[in-house]
Design goal:
With 257 residues, this protein is of the alpha/beta class. Helix content is 32%, strand content 21%. Helix 6 runs antiparallel to helix 7. The protein is globular and about 45 Å long.
Protein backbone atom coordinates (compact mmCIF):
# COMPACT_ATOMS: atom_id res chain seq x y z
CA UNK A 1 0.00 0.00 0.00
CA UNK A 2 1.39 3.37 -1.02
CA UNK A 3 2.07 5.67 1.92
CA UNK A 4 2.25 9.45 1.85
CA UNK A 5 4.42 11.44 4.26
CA UNK A 6 4.15 15.14 4.95
CA UNK A 7 7.37 17.08 5.51
CA UNK A 8 7.69 20.76 6.39
CA UNK A 9 10.31 23.24 5.22
CA UNK A 10 10.44 26.09 7.73
CA UNK A 11 12.52 29.19 8.35
CA UNK A 12 12.49 32.94 7.94
CA UNK A 13 11.73 34.91 4.83
CA UNK A 14 14.32 34.38 2.13
CA UNK A 15 16.23 31.46 3.73
CA UNK A 16 15.59 29.24 0.70
CA UNK A 17 12.47 27.17 1.41
CA UNK A 18 11.02 27.65 -2.08
CA UNK A 19 14.44 27.04 -3.63
CA UNK A 20 15.00 23.86 -1.62
CA UNK A 21 11.64 22.38 -2.59
CA UNK A 22 12.21 23.32 -6.23
CA UNK A 23 15.59 21.59 -6.17
CA UNK A 24 14.14 18.16 -5.36
CA UNK A 25 10.47 18.20 -6.39
CA UNK A 26 9.52 15.93 -9.28
CA UNK A 27 6.70 18.30 -10.21
CA UNK A 28 6.80 22.04 -10.84
CA UNK A 29 6.38 23.39 -7.31
CA UNK A 30 3.08 24.99 -6.45
CA UNK A 31 3.98 28.41 -5.07
CA UNK A 32 1.96 31.26 -3.62
CA UNK A 33 4.61 33.94 -4.05
CA UNK A 34 3.43 37.53 -4.36
CA UNK A 35 5.21 40.86 -4.58
CA UNK A 36 6.99 41.65 -1.32
CA UNK A 37 5.37 44.69 0.28
CA UNK A 38 7.97 44.94 3.04
CA UNK A 39 11.17 45.63 1.11
CA UNK A 40 12.57 47.69 3.97
CA UNK A 41 12.58 44.68 6.27
CA UNK A 42 13.91 42.31 3.60
CA UNK A 43 15.01 43.16 0.09
CA UNK A 44 13.34 40.29 -1.75
CA UNK A 45 11.12 40.78 -4.79
CA UNK A 46 8.70 37.93 -4.05
CA UNK A 47 7.55 36.29 -0.81
CA UNK A 48 5.44 33.23 0.01
CA UNK A 49 2.10 34.13 1.61
CA UNK A 50 0.44 30.72 1.99
CA UNK A 51 2.68 27.76 1.21
CA UNK A 52 4.96 26.09 -1.29
CA UNK A 53 4.27 22.52 -2.34
CA UNK A 54 6.37 19.86 -4.03
CA UNK A 55 6.46 16.08 -4.24
CA UNK A 56 8.97 13.23 -4.37
CA UNK A 57 7.96 9.68 -5.33
CA UNK A 58 10.31 7.10 -3.82
CA UNK A 59 11.33 3.86 -5.59
CA UNK A 60 8.96 1.98 -3.28
CA UNK A 61 6.07 4.07 -4.59
CA UNK A 62 5.67 5.99 -1.34
CA UNK A 63 5.39 9.76 -1.70
CA UNK A 64 6.97 12.61 0.20
CA UNK A 65 4.78 15.71 0.20
CA UNK A 66 6.90 18.80 0.78
CA UNK A 67 5.31 21.91 2.28
CA UNK A 68 7.13 25.22 2.65
CA UNK A 69 5.59 27.50 5.27
CA UNK A 70 5.43 31.30 4.89
CA UNK A 71 8.38 32.86 6.69
CA UNK A 72 6.89 36.15 7.82
CA UNK A 73 5.48 36.30 11.34
CA UNK A 74 2.30 38.00 10.14
CA UNK A 75 1.40 34.63 8.60
CA UNK A 76 2.21 32.68 11.77
CA UNK A 77 -1.48 31.84 12.24
CA UNK A 78 -0.95 29.33 9.40
CA UNK A 79 2.04 27.60 10.96
CA UNK A 80 0.07 25.35 13.31
CA UNK A 81 -2.31 24.38 10.50
CA UNK A 82 0.56 23.36 8.24
CA UNK A 83 2.35 21.58 11.08
CA UNK A 84 -0.63 19.32 11.70
CA UNK A 85 0.03 15.85 10.31
CA UNK A 86 3.73 16.49 9.60
CA UNK A 87 6.12 13.58 10.08
CA UNK A 88 9.18 15.80 10.27
CA UNK A 89 10.73 19.15 9.47
CA UNK A 90 13.63 20.63 7.54
CA UNK A 91 14.43 23.90 9.33
CA UNK A 92 16.53 26.40 7.36
CA UNK A 93 18.61 29.35 8.56
CA UNK A 94 20.72 32.00 6.83
CA UNK A 95 24.00 32.69 8.62
CA UNK A 96 24.57 35.91 6.64
CA UNK A 97 21.71 37.73 8.39
CA UNK A 98 22.68 40.52 10.81
CA UNK A 99 21.44 38.40 13.72
CA UNK A 100 20.49 34.95 12.41
CA UNK A 101 19.89 33.51 15.87
CA UNK A 102 17.09 35.97 16.66
CA UNK A 103 15.20 34.86 13.56
CA UNK A 104 15.98 31.20 14.19
CA UNK A 105 14.69 31.47 17.74
CA UNK A 106 11.25 32.47 16.45
CA UNK A 107 10.90 29.10 14.74
CA UNK A 108 12.53 27.12 17.54
CA UNK A 109 9.83 28.48 19.82
CA UNK A 110 6.92 28.17 17.39
CA UNK A 111 7.71 24.56 16.48
CA UNK A 112 9.26 23.47 19.77
CA UNK A 113 6.92 20.49 20.24
CA UNK A 114 7.83 18.95 16.88
CA UNK A 115 11.51 19.85 17.13
CA UNK A 116 11.86 18.31 20.59
CA UNK A 117 10.72 14.95 19.26
CA UNK A 118 13.94 14.95 17.23
CA UNK A 119 12.10 14.48 13.93
CA UNK A 120 13.87 17.39 12.28
CA UNK A 121 17.13 18.61 10.79
CA UNK A 122 18.65 22.09 10.57
CA UNK A 123 20.33 23.35 7.40
CA UNK A 124 22.40 26.55 7.65
CA UNK A 125 23.15 28.50 4.49
CA UNK A 126 25.94 31.01 3.81
CA UNK A 127 27.88 29.76 6.80
CA UNK A 128 31.35 31.04 7.60
CA UNK A 129 34.19 28.65 6.78
CA UNK A 130 35.63 29.16 10.25
CA UNK A 131 36.05 25.92 12.18
CA UNK A 132 33.32 25.43 14.73
CA UNK A 133 30.81 27.72 12.98
CA UNK A 134 28.12 25.05 13.26
CA UNK A 135 28.78 24.62 16.98
CA UNK A 136 27.04 27.92 17.71
CA UNK A 137 23.86 26.56 16.16
CA UNK A 138 24.15 23.29 18.08
CA UNK A 139 24.54 25.29 21.30
CA UNK A 140 21.48 27.38 20.40
CA UNK A 141 19.44 24.24 19.91
CA UNK A 142 20.74 22.72 23.14
CA UNK A 143 19.54 25.72 25.13
CA UNK A 144 16.07 24.96 23.77
CA UNK A 145 16.48 21.25 24.64
CA UNK A 146 16.46 20.34 20.95
CA UNK A 147 18.73 17.59 19.68
CA UNK A 148 18.75 17.39 15.89
CA UNK A 149 21.41 17.12 13.14
CA UNK A 150 22.87 20.39 11.85
CA UNK A 151 24.42 20.85 8.40
CA UNK A 152 25.98 23.61 6.35
CA UNK A 153 24.16 23.58 3.00
CA UNK A 154 23.49 25.36 -0.25
CA UNK A 155 19.80 24.72 -0.95
CA UNK A 156 20.29 25.60 -4.61
CA UNK A 157 22.04 22.24 -4.92
CA UNK A 158 19.84 19.17 -5.17
CA UNK A 159 22.42 16.97 -3.46
CA UNK A 160 22.48 19.25 -0.42
CA UNK A 161 18.70 19.16 -0.04
CA UNK A 162 18.71 15.38 -0.46
CA UNK A 163 21.38 15.27 2.22
CA UNK A 164 19.03 17.03 4.62
CA UNK A 165 16.16 14.67 3.80
CA UNK A 166 18.40 11.62 4.11
CA UNK A 167 19.65 12.86 7.49
CA UNK A 168 16.07 13.49 8.61
CA UNK A 169 15.01 9.92 7.92
CA UNK A 170 18.20 8.59 9.46
CA UNK A 171 17.31 10.59 12.59
CA UNK A 172 13.80 9.14 12.60
CA UNK A 173 15.18 5.63 12.22
CA UNK A 174 17.57 6.13 15.16
CA UNK A 175 14.72 7.39 17.34
CA UNK A 176 12.58 4.43 16.30
CA UNK A 177 15.29 1.97 17.22
CA UNK A 178 15.72 3.67 20.59
CA UNK A 179 11.99 3.40 21.20
CA UNK A 180 11.91 -0.24 20.18
CA UNK A 181 14.74 -1.06 22.57
CA UNK A 182 12.82 0.57 25.41
CA UNK A 183 15.15 3.54 25.86
CA UNK A 184 13.53 6.25 28.04
CA UNK A 185 11.97 9.05 26.00
CA UNK A 186 14.18 11.62 27.69
CA UNK A 187 17.22 9.95 26.16
CA UNK A 188 15.63 9.49 22.77
CA UNK A 189 15.90 13.18 21.85
CA UNK A 190 13.11 13.92 24.32
CA UNK A 191 10.60 12.19 22.05
CA UNK A 192 7.15 12.03 23.58
CA UNK A 193 6.00 9.49 21.00
CA UNK A 194 7.65 6.91 18.73
CA UNK A 195 9.40 8.79 15.93
CA UNK A 196 8.68 6.24 13.22
CA UNK A 197 5.12 6.04 14.50
CA UNK A 198 4.60 8.97 12.13
CA UNK A 199 2.74 10.23 15.16
CA UNK A 200 1.22 13.24 13.44
CA UNK A 201 0.70 11.58 10.08
CA UNK A 202 -2.96 11.04 9.15
CA UNK A 203 -1.94 7.88 7.27
CA UNK A 204 -0.76 6.29 10.52
CA UNK A 205 -3.14 3.93 12.30
CA UNK A 206 -1.72 5.26 15.56
CA UNK A 207 -1.94 8.99 14.90
CA UNK A 208 -3.96 9.52 18.07
CA UNK A 209 -2.81 6.46 20.00
CA UNK A 210 -1.36 7.38 23.39
CA UNK A 211 -0.50 3.78 24.33
CA UNK A 212 2.94 2.28 23.60
CA UNK A 213 3.03 0.22 20.43
CA UNK A 214 3.25 -3.55 20.62
CA UNK A 215 6.52 -5.21 19.63
CA UNK A 216 5.19 -6.22 16.21
CA UNK A 217 3.83 -2.76 15.55
CA UNK A 218 7.09 -1.11 16.58
CA UNK A 219 9.02 -3.39 14.23
CA UNK A 220 6.78 -2.41 11.33
CA UNK A 221 7.28 1.27 12.10
CA UNK A 222 11.06 0.88 12.27
CA UNK A 223 10.97 -0.92 8.93
CA UNK A 224 8.89 1.90 7.43
CA UNK A 225 11.26 4.67 8.48
CA UNK A 226 14.30 2.60 7.50
CA UNK A 227 12.74 1.94 4.10
CA UNK A 228 12.16 5.65 3.56
CA UNK A 229 15.79 6.39 4.38
CA UNK A 230 16.98 3.63 2.04
CA UNK A 231 14.69 4.74 -0.78
CA UNK A 232 15.75 8.35 -0.46
CA UNK A 233 19.43 7.47 -0.31
CA UNK A 234 19.11 5.35 -3.48
CA UNK A 235 22.50 3.79 -2.92
CA UNK A 236 24.25 6.87 -1.61
CA UNK A 237 26.55 6.71 1.38
CA UNK A 238 25.11 7.76 4.76
CA UNK A 239 25.02 11.53 5.38
CA UNK A 240 28.42 13.09 5.99
CA UNK A 241 29.44 16.55 6.99
CA UNK A 242 27.63 18.23 9.81
CA UNK A 243 26.78 17.75 13.44
CA UNK A 244 24.52 15.01 14.76
CA UNK A 245 23.30 15.04 18.38
CA UNK A 246 26.29 14.09 20.49
CA UNK A 247 28.55 13.51 17.51
CA UNK A 248 30.44 15.74 15.07
CA UNK A 249 31.17 14.34 11.62
CA UNK A 250 34.05 15.93 9.77
CA UNK A 251 33.91 15.74 6.00
CA UNK A 252 35.02 17.64 2.93
CA UNK A 253 31.44 17.24 1.71
CA UNK A 254 30.35 20.12 3.95
CA UNK A 255 29.15 22.94 1.73
CA UNK A 256 29.27 26.69 2.20
CA UNK A 257 28.09 29.61 0.12
Amino acid sequence: MVQEYKLLFAGGMGVGKTTAISAVSEIPPVSTDVANSDREAFDKELTTVTLDYGRITLPSGDRLRLYGIPGQQRFSFMWAMLEHGAMGMVLLADASRPDPFVELDIFLKAFSKLLRTGRAVLGVGRLSKRRGALDKYVAKLARRKIKIPVFSVDVRKKKDVLLLLDALFTQIEVLEEAYRSGEPSGKAAQSTSPAGDLANNPASDHANDKEPAKDGEASEKVAASASLADDLASGKEPPKGGVFPGKTVQSTNETTV
